[in-house]
Design a protein that fits this description.
Layout lengths: L9 E6 L4 H5 L1 H9 L3 E8 L15 H19 L3 E7 L8 H14 L3 E4 L6 E2 L3 E2 L2 H17 L7 H5 L9 E5 L6 E4 L4 H8 L3 H4 L5 H12 L7 E8 L5
Parallel strand pairs: 1-2, 1-4, 2-3, 4-7
Antiparallel strand pairs: 5-6, 7-9, 8-9
Helix pairs in contact: 3-7, 4-5
The structure holds zinc ion.
């Protein structure tokens, strides 16, 4: 089976903010969902710092968090994702703590994903114009080490074991935004769905239409790989699929 045809039975997408998943991996997730994969979308922070409107203060944060959760649910519905988990960490203040790794380990043991999709914990500078948000790196690092070793090692976080969460080994880890990608997923059939899902994040996009940029990014990833549109990953093969 070629890489681009691999479809996990259960996948988990783990990201820091509402909208991260739609900007990055949503074409792949929609493709997997259409092929019958059950997907769990994990949003670590509430996104409650996602506004620079003058006049916004701390009292506006709960309403913004609610709005962003609604936008994420609408986006996930478009992608074919039925299950969304909001962990509710404060936006803009995320660290790769043991507590966060514990939360993610619990979710991986509960849902038993075959594949987990995360960002790159190394990513600091993208091009000359974008410093990667530290929440993205913290989320990626905590998720990475929840996948390995915490989810599969029986005696890490034994409170989880005592609560009935048996160890689970993730087979494949998909890392987007990696400096050296090795796997390109053809999203030619789902780029429209990706764009539609992204557009649900109205609180972040305002009047801006992201379609042109998303198509340019996906075309850039696809060129030299015989596709029109792609999402690129570094894929870690951590065990044999059954
Ligand atoms: Zn983000």
């Amino acid at each position: 089976m070629s890489e681009k045809e691999f479809i996990p039975r259960i996948a988990m997408s783990i990201h820091a903010h509402p909208d991260d998943q739609e900007f990055t991996v949503a074409g792949t997730l929609a493709k997997w969902a259409q092929a019958g994969c059950r997907i769990v979308s994990v949003v670590i922070t509430s996104g409650d710092a996602g506004s620079n409107d003058a006049g916004k203060t701390t009292t506006d944060k709960p309403a913004l968090a609610r709005r962003r959760a609604e936008e994420q649910l609408a986006a996930n519905a478009i992608l074919g994702i039925q299950e969304t988990v909001f962990l509710g960490y404060p936006d803009g203040e995320l660290e790769a703590t043991l507590s966060l790794r514990h939360d993610l380990t619990r979710l991986i043991r509960l849902h038993k994903p075959e594949a987990v999709v995360i960002g790159d914990p190394h990513g600091v500078f993208y091009g000359n114009g974008y410093i990667n948000h530290p929440d993205h790196r913290a989320a990626a690092q905590a998720a990475l080490y929840a996948v390995f070793p915490s989810a599969g090692t029986r005696l890490i976080f034994t409170d989880l074991l005592e609560a009935g969460y048996e160890p689970h080994n993730v087979s494949r880890l998909y890392v987007h935004g990696a400096e050296k990608s090795d796997t390109w997923v053809d999203i030619g059939d789902t780029i429209e769905v990706k764009i539609e899902a992204l557009k649900k994040h109205v609180s972040q996009l305002g009047d801006w239409d992201p379609e042109k940029m998303i198509r340019e990014w996906a075309a850039e990833e696809a060129k030299e790989h015989g596709m029109e549109y792609a999402e690129a990953y570094k894929v870690m093969m951590l065990g044999e699929e059954e």
